[in-house]
Amino acid sequence: MSQSALDDDELFGEAASEMRADVEKHLDAARAELPAPEAIWDVEAENTLGVLNALRGALDVGDAEQHLRDARKWYTMGQRADAFEDAEDLEEDLESLTEVMEEIVAAREQVGDLASTIPPLRGQLEDLHEESEATDDESDADEEADAEDAEADDADEEDEE
Question: Do 104 and 37 form a contact (C-beta atoms < 8 A)?
Answer without folding.
Answer: no
